[in-house]
């Protein structure tokens, strides 16, 4: 730590606060930005410079162009790829989730090897899921304790098989980090055809030239879109096949016992899901409360598939589910957390079939305030499996044959109860960001037919609110019983992020009240104020970037986005391991079975929270990348076409564009913007012409031309067609020019 003079110790941020600001800032961070954020002037700036220099010397900060990168932290659980053995015989590796364009070279991680009989230590190229801890050593900033080996990456590679005239065949790895193509000799192609996606084994060869590989499995033509999700599955080391032991254990399961369960088979519980849902894990029911002290109130039931009765602590199924963390949903397939025997059969709340469930009984008054709740293990029989659209149509007067018998007795009471809950929700004031979802509609070969933004129906909101209330009740019940659990935590934005947001808002003549505890209401008021204005999308984007990321934790820190003091995931144990832990906790707390939390469950709760938080981040990245690849393939034949979109990100090197019709993301290099110097303004989230004042800002609607498509990586490169907004040239000291064109650019079409 830098020794500070008494005159400046009060003004400078602590090392912790400084690193947190750099790590969480959504825009470029340098000395100027830090000084502005912490209000440093005069001599304090000199001390700040010395502090930053010392942090760089200590290896806690790295510099990439003008951006400072906090190198002091990695996620507590992450995937590490073994990269070699050092001179002391120690195994080391690198995190696979690391953006070198922003953060520079990834840090080396010392991998602790536990030598056990019959267990092979990881080799170069292998990937492992590991617990990360900082280490004070000179050579390594982190050490990793292996939780589980992910794959034998030292021998296997996924790539595109390409015939090369006069040179046999090559394997082009899909992993962007791969340094070399591989050569496939005659006889080692296993029947692979040009352009196919294959899994290959790397061969030992001490000769010169390209490394050799032998095709092990043909996964299909890369032009068959159904194979594209395999790239993300491979890159993120997502386990997509169950072992024979896991499958055998799931197939050996027998149906549940009915004794000691409350019989709800005569209660008309219904499931309401997407039309293409393969499993149904939640059912709902509501009726007017007949309690004379609760006039206008409602009784409700949320029944959730009782996965805990089948997946017992310490079983092979349990270990596999914990490792996977969650199901992963791609446009063309699902990689489930649990085998289909459980997710699509024993625990799917099928219509007219008996199923075990863990039910939350809740009573609400006419204003939506919850008066009471209780939990019980039950037997239920779904009265109907409805789609969101079918249920909504019935309420709107368009009845299907199935819904006609349910609308008066089942659906209308549900909607009435939801109407009361909405009143409480509005009083609570959760964060209301406008984040439209994109959904790919595929044909039978996996090709994109169109990209749609599904309508947000009241049926969606109803199920969402019922689930939220059940999740809150679970957290409250377990907290009252002092039972360990996994909370779903979403912390409020850091003070530095809020300060950065306030500085940005001044550029569009808006303000954010500082000096008080931020609540979702403050952001909602801001979003309502900008609704319908030209910069509505811009403000929504910046507010979103201000928010923290939700994680799982055994410690309650509240849920800022939902404006709730405590919150736990209870409603989807088929697809989320966190929910299974909460189910077991309820079983233990209420004494309603022998399959509650185990000693190991409790002792490893913090590690489990880290593991499943990492699995969630991994799934989100894989899902996003697959969608990008599918859309890129869809646009591959439209090079040269013009598209409308908006600027979804701004960096010194150029602009990220999100197309209006498809939601596809691409990049406009700053070199295509014109002959002016362009300055990156981190405060305004914009590139500004130094001479002309022409401005391209986050959220602006623009027109671009598609220049290049890379389907394997999902990359799109655009050329800007629109002119930017006219404005004032930036002050000379505001930023460094990001580009000077050395050739006359093509003129852009005027708006």
Q: How would you characterize this protein structure?
A:
- The protein is an alpha+beta fold and 751 residues long.
- The chain folds into six domains: 6-70, Arc Repressor Mutant, subunit A (Orthogonal Bundle); 77-151, OB fold (Dihydrolipoamide Acetyltransferase, E2P), CATH 2.40.50; 156-222, OB fold (Dihydrolipoamide Acetyltransferase, E2P), CATH 2.40.50; 250-418 and 449-467 and 573-623, no CATH class; 492-547; 639-720, OB fold (Dihydrolipoamide Acetyltransferase, E2P), CATH 2.40.50.140.
- The protein is built from 19 helices and 33 strands.
- The strands form ten sheets. It has a five-stranded mixed beta barrel.
- The two termini are 54 Å apart.
Q: How would you sum up this structure in a few lines?
A:
This protein is α+β, with helices and mostly antiparallel strands and 751 residues long. It is built from 19 helices and 33 strands. Helix 13 (458-480) packs across helix 17 (577-590) and helix 15 (520-530) runs antiparallel to helix 16.
Please render the helix and strand layout as text.
Elements lengths: L5 H4 L5 H10 L6 H8 L4 H15 L3 E4 L2 E4 L6 E9 L5 E5 L4 H4 L5 E4 L14 E8 L7 E10 L4 E8 L5 E5 L8 E3 L11 E7 L10 E9 L7 H7 L8 H8 L10 E2 L6 E4 L8 E7 L9 E8 L10 H9 L3 E2 L4 E2 L4 H7 L7 E11 L5 E12 L2 E4 H8 L5 H4 L2 H22 L10 E4 L5 E5 L5 H23 L6 E3 L5 H13 L12 H11 L5 H11 L4 E3 L23 H14 L8 H5 L1 H31 L6 E10 L2 E6 L5 E5 L8 E4 L4 E4 L5 E3 L3 E10 L4 E6 L31
Parallel strand pairs: 5-7, 13-20, 14-21
Antiparallel strand pairs: 1-2, 3-4, 3-6, 4-5, 6-7, 8-9, 8-11, 9-10, 11-12, 15-16, 16-19, 17-18, 19-20, 22-23, 24-25, 26-27, 26-32, 27-28, 29-30, 30-31, 32-33
